[in-house]
Amino acid sequence: MWRQVAGEVRWSFTPPALWLEGVGANVLLSGLFLLISPLTLHKHGWVVLVGIYFATFVLADVTTTNVLGVDADRTRLSLATGVPVQRILIIKNLALLIIVGLPTLLATAVLTATTSTHPMQRTGISVTDVALPILAWLGVGNLVSALLAVPPRALGQRWAARRDLPSTVPWLLHLVLPYGLYYFVAPIDGEQRAILGHHLGRSMSGAARGAIHLGIGVTVWAAGTALAVAVVRRRGLRMW
């Protein structure tokens, strides 16, 4: 499988590099918005806040929610040759983790270790706090990809077919949906959701909270992936 993951990473950097276009655009947008509207200071530290902000904003893109459609030809070929859809999703998720998730987690660990007064204690906690939205986004993205897989087409072709509503509406929806989901899970003012509740979160140790956050992230990813597989098995992979 790791050979296939390496091939997926290489494909991501091969022109036209459709995945990286979305990632790059969101990195730029997230930086610009951070300058325009600074984030609210998070009670667990600015490193965690910035890490969560960039992880969720960068992944709030069709890069994550259209993993089965952005390279539709390769996906169809894999399915036609008998590759299970769950394997395709896992390979693409691991590639995204390497390209986006791993650099974000490494940056979080380094910044925490160099700025915290208790680096050994805080680093692991900060990393798990940031890992939660990354894993959750991948799980949600897998489900959305199975429901709304949209193959890439030139803007000129989309414009020429703009009156074809069965094609145009899903295309527009798949563009705006990631940002709508982002606003729901992480409001633009930067104030993150207190998943465990403020009182419960304060009464728990950092290690316990980090373990629970990591467990929630893995659970959301597993649930989203399982639902995506069920959708494809039930109706096939429908390209819009």
Beta strand count: 0
Task: Give the % helix.
Answer: over 70%
Shape: globular
Task: Please give the count of helices.
Answer: 11
Order of helices and strands: HHHHHHHHHHH
Fold topology:
Blueprint lengths: L1 H11 L5 H19 L9 H14 L2 H4 L6 H9 L4 H31 L3 H29 L7 H6 L4 H21 L12 H6 L2 H30 L5
Helix pairs in contact: 1-6, 2-3, 3-6, 3-7, 6-7, 6-11, 7-11
Protein name: ABC transporter permease
Keywords: Membrane, Transmembrane, Transmembrane helix
Write up what this structure looks like.
The chain is an all-alpha fold. The protein has one domain. The chain is 75% helix and 0% strand. The chain has helices at 2-12, 18-36, 46-59, 62-65, 72-80, 85-115, 119-147, 155-160, 165-185, 198-203, 206-235. The longest helix has 31 residues, at 85-115. It is globular and about 60 Å long. The model is unreliable at 196-200 (pLDDT under 50).
Features:
single chain; 240 residues; mainly alpha; 0% strand; globular
Question: What's a quick, concise take on this entry?
Answer:
With 240 residues, the chain is mostly helical. Helices cover 75% and strands 0% of the residues.
